[in-house]
Amino acid sequence: MKNMNRNSRKISPFSLINTLVLLIICTLFLIPFFHLLAKSLSGAYPVIRGEVGLWPKDFQLDSYINVIGNRQFRNSFLSSTFLATVGTFISVLLTIMVAYPLSKPYFKGRKIILYAFVISWLLTPSIVPVFFLIKNLGLMNNLFSVILVNVIYTFNMLIVKTYFEGMPESLSEAAQIEGASNLRIFFTIIAPLAKPVIATITIYSVFGYWNSYFFPMLFISKPHLRPIQVYIYELVYAAMGSTSGNISDVASKNVSSIPDVVRSTSVFVSIVPVMMIYPFAQKHFVKGMLIGSVKG
Amino acid sequence: MGTKKKNHFKRYIKRNYDLYILVLPGILFLLIFKYLPLLGNVIAFKDFKLNGGDTIFSAIVNSEWVGLKHFMRIFDNPAALNAVKNTFIIAGLKTIFLFPIPIIFALMLNEIRVNRFKRFAQTIMYFPNFLSWVVVGSLFNQILQTDGLLNSLLNIPQMERLSFLINPKYFRTILVLTDGWKSSGFATIIYLSAIAGIGTEQYEAAIVDGVNRFQKMWHITLPNISSTIAMVFVLTIGMQVASGSFEQVLIMANPTVYSTGDILQTFSYRKGLGAMEFSFSTAAGMLNAIAGLIIIYSSNFASKKLFGKSIW
Fold this sequence. Notes:
The complex is a heterodimer of chains A (296) and B (312). By secondary structure, chain A is an all-alpha fold. Helices cover 71% and strands 0% of the residues of chain A. In chain B, helix 3 crosses helix 16 and helix 5 packs across helix 9.
């Protein structure tokens, strides 16, 4: 408290300028959101005439009712929710399962498997072979294609592995002496103690699946299965008059009649879940990054 | 001796066979979804045709080896060369302009004494990082399009208004700025936590010596976070070439800006799944992956040598 008082009495020119510049930067960061929100809450005509800046004109909420009531939007929302929940569950489970043995120095084959993961991370295959692989596995128009194609992200796996390596061996020793299997030790002792790092990669994964666009666009063509990003893309970009070279545009030329208001509203609703999870993310993301980057 | 070793191994297996159960799904994933398509990259060295066999496998096997023909074609094809050039220019521009920004943001935020404002600013800067490129593209579309916010702010007369998104002159700038908007906050937070980890004794000693704010930043803060800076550099520079701009360009670009905006990955995607030139597309994709690999590998090596830190 004393500290605060001393500081607030003596404001140096540097602090003032620094604070002002940061305020301007924050405003620049916020403008796109306010503009979007204002458009989504405005009437159709002011939006078309380009009169809406950062404050809504002819305020209305019908567009929100429209978007939430739209079956295609809801289907896409559900598709992405499926990816973000089921996908994340599978992804996190497989990631920690691989990371545990790799954290044990005595685990034979550790080096090879570790290198195999790092190489797969750095050397990405070209698009054509991946496309034909999914096609030949019969996973086209199946959301599991999107889940499986990147189910273990090497970076996440390395973060978890580093975390496990930092856990004292004594945690599992007692159970080992009593004859518990590694599987049992892992699921009942180790995994519950690794909650912080599991929270971190869970959040990475939820956002990763929710925001994924490319693979869903490539693998999912049935309209009722299209994840939200593909839906939003088609809504926003296909209307711009085939400006993009994307293949998925061909399927959606009929959206140019959709008013800008509905478009803005759809984009806004699609980021509401992101905003809701964001506070948790902020907490765990940094922690995870720090765990992962401590490597001497 | 031999039996002893054998017994040892037996005991190891008996005790640890279930560790292999734990890694099995992960290994299957690697083999099927990562290494199988990597093997599929051989079509870059062949004249692959879909109808060349009953199954995709026999079609690949039956297709004719052509060596480096498709790689050579990249260097004969103006559009491909343009994409190669843009890949490096865009990655370079992003590195030059976006790499220092988070360091500056972190130094500025670190000087803020009012914790509530500091936290507020971090929250704002960090958020766009969690949005997809589709959403970020849409947000800036609204601002940059013909009847968008920027045109009306600049007071350009209705008749002369154009979308900034169809002008090749502006496209790279737009890529750099939107990427900065989306991802600066991420590295900023990493630097801030690195700064928070610096011991206060160093600063206290500096105060006794009577150094000013900027000298403190230069002589204490920056050297103390140099290894973090190196780590972030290694992570971003390789990714920048390997895949950094793919979704962004795929979503934001359109044929009018290909001259300055098309990169190898988007080119490879259009050639492969649009024009069905599978082998050529795969060659372009491979070239990109290898370039990225070389850059990330050498920057990691340099970081290890210079700062004793590496990401693997």
